[in-house]
Specification:
single chain; 55 residues; mainly alpha; 1 helix; 84% helix; 0% strand; rod-shaped
């Protein structure tokens, strides 16, 4: 028979939820950093194209 410890279940679920929430926040921050980097790269590319046309 399995020995299930149901006394610590709420604490385990609470810790698991906070860990998942923290991981989701980190994942979202990484996505936002990637989006910001791509946006900056796009702006530099447009500026370079304009400078090439002017010169």
């Amino acid at each position: 028979m399995a020995n299930l410890d149901t006394q610590s279940l709420p604490e385990d679920l609470s810790a698991l939820r906070s860990q998942v929430r923290r991981s989701a926040h980190v994942q979202h921050a990484k996505r936002m950093m990637l989006a910001a980097g791509l946006c900056a790269f796009g702006m530099v590319a447009v500026a370079a194209a304009l400078l090439i046309r002017i010169v």
